[in-house]
Amino acid sequence: QVLGGNDQVPIQAAIYYSTKSTLNPRQVIAVTFQAHPEYATSKDKGLEKTLHNIIEAMKVRGDITEEERQQAKDDATREYESVRDQSVHAMISAGKTLGWFP
Protein backbone atom coordinates (compact mmCIF):
# COMPACT_ATOMS: atom_id res chain seq x y z
CA GLN A 1 0.00 0.00 0.00
CA VAL A 2 1.54 3.32 -1.04
CA LEU A 3 0.73 6.02 1.47
CA GLY A 4 1.55 9.24 -0.32
CA GLY A 5 5.13 8.31 -1.20
CA ASN A 6 6.99 9.44 -4.28
CA ASP A 7 10.53 9.30 -5.72
CA GLN A 8 11.70 12.11 -3.42
CA VAL A 9 9.93 10.86 -0.28
CA PRO A 10 9.81 7.07 -0.23
CA ILE A 11 7.64 5.29 2.30
CA GLN A 12 9.55 3.37 4.96
CA ALA A 13 7.89 0.35 6.57
CA ALA A 14 8.90 -2.63 8.68
CA ILE A 15 7.31 -5.71 10.19
CA TYR A 16 9.00 -7.31 13.19
CA TYR A 17 8.66 -11.02 13.88
CA SER A 18 9.15 -12.90 17.13
CA THR A 19 12.24 -15.10 17.25
CA LYS A 20 11.33 -16.61 20.62
CA SER A 21 7.88 -18.02 19.95
CA THR A 22 8.04 -21.81 19.69
CA LEU A 23 4.39 -22.02 18.61
CA ASN A 24 4.72 -19.57 15.75
CA PRO A 25 8.26 -18.46 14.89
CA ARG A 26 6.88 -16.02 12.29
CA GLN A 27 4.50 -14.32 14.72
CA VAL A 28 4.25 -10.62 13.93
CA ILE A 29 5.00 -8.57 17.04
CA ALA A 30 5.19 -5.03 15.59
CA VAL A 31 4.34 -3.08 12.45
CA THR A 32 5.68 0.36 11.72
CA PHE A 33 5.32 2.68 8.76
CA GLN A 34 6.32 6.22 8.01
CA ALA A 35 3.17 8.25 7.70
CA HIS A 36 1.34 11.09 9.38
CA PRO A 37 -2.31 10.05 9.63
CA GLU A 38 -2.89 12.99 11.96
CA TYR A 39 -2.86 15.23 8.89
CA ALA A 40 -5.73 13.25 7.44
CA THR A 41 -7.88 12.82 10.53
CA SER A 42 -9.74 16.09 10.10
CA LYS A 43 -9.66 18.70 7.41
CA ASP A 44 -9.93 21.65 9.79
CA LYS A 45 -7.38 20.54 12.42
CA GLY A 46 -5.11 18.12 10.57
CA LEU A 47 -4.85 19.43 7.04
CA GLU A 48 -5.75 23.10 7.28
CA LYS A 49 -4.14 23.74 10.66
CA THR A 50 -1.30 21.35 11.46
CA LEU A 51 -0.02 20.56 7.97
CA HIS A 52 -0.53 24.03 6.54
CA ASN A 53 1.24 25.57 9.58
CA ILE A 54 4.20 23.24 9.03
CA ILE A 55 4.33 24.18 5.34
CA GLU A 56 4.21 27.87 6.27
CA ALA A 57 7.05 27.41 8.80
CA MET A 58 9.15 25.69 6.13
CA LYS A 59 8.61 28.69 3.83
CA VAL A 60 9.48 31.19 6.57
CA ARG A 61 12.71 29.30 7.37
CA GLY A 62 13.64 29.31 3.70
CA ASP A 63 13.42 25.52 3.36
CA ILE A 64 10.97 25.80 0.44
CA THR A 65 10.08 28.48 -2.08
CA GLU A 66 6.72 30.21 -2.32
CA GLU A 67 5.95 28.10 -5.38
CA GLU A 68 6.82 24.88 -3.50
CA ARG A 69 4.70 26.04 -0.54
CA GLN A 70 1.68 26.55 -2.78
CA GLN A 71 2.26 23.28 -4.62
CA ALA A 72 2.47 21.38 -1.30
CA LYS A 73 -0.76 22.95 -0.03
CA ASP A 74 -2.54 22.30 -3.32
CA ASP A 75 -1.33 18.67 -3.42
CA ALA A 76 -2.33 18.03 0.19
CA THR A 77 -5.79 19.49 -0.42
CA ARG A 78 -6.26 17.59 -3.69
CA GLU A 79 -5.09 14.25 -2.23
CA TYR A 80 -6.71 14.67 1.22
CA GLU A 81 -9.44 12.03 0.79
CA SER A 82 -7.06 9.49 -0.75
CA VAL A 83 -4.47 9.96 2.02
CA ARG A 84 -7.20 9.74 4.66
CA ASP A 85 -8.56 6.51 3.20
CA GLN A 86 -5.09 5.00 2.76
CA SER A 87 -4.08 6.02 6.30
CA VAL A 88 -7.10 4.29 7.78
CA HIS A 89 -6.50 1.23 5.58
CA ALA A 90 -2.84 1.03 6.65
CA MET A 91 -3.74 1.24 10.35
CA ILE A 92 -6.47 -1.41 10.02
CA SER A 93 -4.10 -3.68 8.06
CA ALA A 94 -1.45 -3.32 10.76
CA GLY A 95 -4.07 -4.10 13.45
CA LYS A 96 -5.23 -7.20 11.58
CA THR A 97 -1.66 -8.39 11.13
CA LEU A 98 -1.10 -8.04 14.88
CA GLY A 99 -4.35 -9.89 15.62
CA TRP A 100 -6.10 -6.87 17.12
CA PHE A 101 -8.98 -7.04 14.62
CA PRO A 102 -10.75 -10.04 13.05
Strands in their spatial order, largest beta sheet: 1-2
Shape: elongated
Taking pLDDT < 50 over at least 5 consecutive residues as the criterion, the unreliable ranges are none
Mean pLDDT: 80
The largest pleated sheet is described as: 2 strands, antiparallel
Q: How many β-strand stretches?
A: 2
Q: State the helical fraction.
A: 40-55%
- Strand residue content: 5-15%
H/E element string?
Answer: EEHHH
How far the N terminus sits from the C terminus, by CA atoms, comes to 20 Å
Number of discrete helical segments: 3
Q: In angstroms, what is the radius of gyration?
A: 17 Å
Structural class: mainly alpha
Show the helix and strand layout:
Layout lengths: L12 E5 L10 E6 L9 H18 L5 H13 L1 H18 L5
Antiparallel strand pairs: 1-2
Helix pairs in contact: 1-2
Entry keywords:
single chain, 102 residues, mainly alpha, two-stranded antiparallel ribbon, 3 helices, 48% helix, 11% strand
Could you characterize the architecture of this molecule?
This protein is mainly α and 102 residues long. The chain is built from three helices and two strands. The model has no long low-confidence stretch (mean pLDDT 80).
Brief sketch in words of this structure:
The chain is 48% helix and 11% strand.
